Amino acid sequence: MKTKMSPNEYEKFIKDKVPKPKLFTNCLKAFVVGGLICDIGQFINNSLEGMKLNPEQVAAGTAIILVFLGAFFTGLGIYDKLGKFAGAGSIVPITGFSNSIVSPAMEFKREGYVFGVGARMFTIAGPVLVYGISTSVVIGIIHLLFFK
Amino acid sequence: MEYINAFIVGGLICVIGQILMDKTKMTPARVLVLFVTLGAVLQGMGIYQKLVDIGGAGATVPLPGFGYALAKGAIKGVKESGLIGAFTGGITGTAGGITGAIVFGYLMSVLFNPRSKK
What we know:
The structure holds two protein chains of two kinds.
Chain A: H1 7-17, H2 22-50, H3 55-75, H4 78-86, H5 88-91, H6 94-107, H7 113-120, H8 122-146
Helix pairs in contact in A: 2-3, 3-6, 6-7, 6-8
Chain B: H1 2-24, H2 28-44, H3 48-55, H4 57-60, H5 63-111
């Protein structure tokens, strides 16, 4: 396999062969942003613990504050910009869950407050709740039958 | 140390989501549904609690943590009130997050207008 290539051809040849680092950089961004959002959650969690709340109140309070932040920054248009950079890093945390509620609801406001906002809020949150809650009921019943 | 663990565990869960989205062309919605279900199933087997013990908010903040809280609540419900508890426990354990998401989600959707497409 001896062929002569001009520098330009060679460069193109190499460019085609080298795998694009897109997946790696995407994962790195997702890791850093996702990790940071979890650290914000950890900070809220620790702050609430410091207020002498019981573990259940701490968990609920942390979720409520994070969900608020996700919704608020989506409203400001900042969260979607973060999403373009971070990918799964901003989608997978619970703040992404509230982003998935506000984003379509805002977009379809012109269709009214019932079928626009009220219904579109659950475009993604709906399936998440359906599968999450259904799975939890099945797990509860399995525990009732086999582990009680 | 707590913050480092949360960062690493939370970051890695997001990386798994990123790989699924890039490699299998799964939409974000499917990833979220998969993660919630997975978190619930893993907690049903008692596994996810171990990840929570290590990662703290790193394990509870990502969506599998929501599934974990649902399953944990359902199991607690069953222990306290049998079959009825299987139905009430999940949402009881996650009531704050779900209600917060609905109320704040609605509020922000009404207050703000989309600004990306202008």
